[in-house]
Predict the structure.
Amino acid sequence: MELISPAHVSDEEKLRILRRLDQFRHWHSLDDRRYCLVCGKIITGHQIRLLGGTRGNGPLRVICPTERCHSIPMDWVLPTAEVLADITMKKAAHADAHAIRQDRDAQKNQRVRPCAN
C-alpha cells in the first residue's frame, strides 16, 4: 500500500484528517502525543502515517509510524503520568534483564575457558 507523500498533504490537512479519523481522542495539533499500546512508543501527529485515499488504494487510514506496527487510533492513548511511569518501569525492567543476561554470559564464559598450562 502506498503512503501519501507529505508533500501532497499540508499540516492543516493532516490535522483535519486525524481529527476526522480518530474518533477516540481529540487532536489539538500535530504536536499532540499518543502512546501506542501495540509497539510501546510515544508518537506525534507529525509522525503518523497516512495510507490509501487514492484511487485503487482503498479508504484513507492513519497508522502508527513505527516500523512493522500497523496500529490505528483505537490503539493510541494519551501519555498520562501513569502511562509514562509505566513506560519508565518497563524500560528499567528491560535494562535490568539485559544486565542480568550479560552478567550470566560473562560468568559462563569465564567457567568455560580452558586452563593454560
Observations:
- The first helix runs from residue 11 to 21.
- The chain has a mean pLDDT of 85.
